[in-house]
Amino acid sequence: MPSRHANRNITLSIALAGSLAAMRLWQRRHHEFSGKTVFISGGSRGLGLVLARECAARGAKVAISARDGEALRRAEADVRRFGKHVLAIETDITMREEAEMALDQRVP
User: Fold this and answer.
1) Domain check: are 42 and 82 in the same one?
2) Considering the entire predicted model, what is its pTM?
């Protein structure tokens, strides 16, 4: 006959497994980007690039912007490995006119 300690461990393991399964289902349902467009400033490196990859992998059309054109072209090629709809916009979003023009562009 299993001890109280063993029963408690089994119960905790079942609860943990159920929680993990529920969390996975919630993530799949609530983080679908298919058919959505995402604009990420600073998308050529760091967190912006990571977010662009993840959004593209989840089906979003992704527009990335950055000031450094060379880094932006590399990032665009990188993000295309995760999704086919990617637009790279060389712009300085601290300049209002440039930011507005960037937001007016459409992801193919």
Assistant:
1) yes
2) 0.70
How far CA 19 is from CA of 23, 78, 89, in Å, comes to 6, 34, 41
Residues 23 and 41 in one domain: no
Residue 8, domain extent: 1-30
Q: In angstroms, what CA-CA distances link 29 with 9, 33, 47?
A: 30, 10, 24
Tell me the pLDDT tens digit for each residue of 62-103. 999 999 999 999 999 999 999 999 999 999 989 999 989 998
Distance between start and end Cα atoms, the chain: 65
pLDDT of residue 75: 98
Total count of domains within the chain: 2
